[in-house]
Amino acid sequence: WTKNGVELSATRKNASNMEYRINKPRAEDSGEYHCVYHFVSAPKANATIEVKAAPDITGHKRSENKNEGQDATMYCKSVGYPHPDWIWRKKENGMPMDIVNTSGRFFIINKENYTELNIVNLQITEDPGEYECNATWPHSGLSWEFWLKLSSLW
User: Which residues does the UniProt record annotate as the domain Ig-like (predicted)?
Assistant: First the structure.
């Protein structure tokens, strides 16, 4: 048996039937499980089972205090399966707007259950405010909000 592509220890057997049991499943048990089997006179085959878990997200912190010219990093993590699609937004006049890297100072890293927003060379006139990471699943969505506060060096 494998979970998300990694073999589960003590599940390799030479038998005509296989069973893998999860007693009292929790969110960390969610993922994609494969039972891989070989027949002497047939090609390799497998069966796939998806174990889904309710989505939730958490962030690094709720606010960040930085000085002008410094860099800022904010991140969010998700639990549950399947993994979400991520998007970062900044509130402009009370409306969340997708972050577009027109200045070349915003860098977004998205992985399966993790997203990170890096802002380099913070600008006091442009960057303070409310940011949010937004996680979207097929039937729901959640967001985590951050406040970025800047102090002027002058």
Answer: 1-52, 55-143
Asked if 134 and 79 sit in the same domain, the reply is yes
Q: How much is the mean pLDDT over the chain?
A: 85
Q: At 13, list the tokens.
A: 């057997």
Q: So what's the pLDDT on residue 147?
A: 84
E strand intervals along the chain: 2-3, 6-7, 31-39, 42-51, 53-59, 63-67, 72-81, 85-92, 95-98, 106-111, 114-119, 129-137, 140-151
Residue where a domain stops, chosen among 51, 68, 87 = 51
Task: Say if residues 97 and 45 touch (Cβ distance below 8 Å).
Answer: no
Q: Looking at the 3D structure of the chain, how many domains does it have?
A: 2
Q: For residue 43, what pLDDT is reported? A: 67
Tell me: the pLDDT tens digits for 122-153? Answer: 999 999 999 999 988 877 887 778 788 877 76
Q: Are 125 and 114 in contact (CB under 8 A)?
A: no
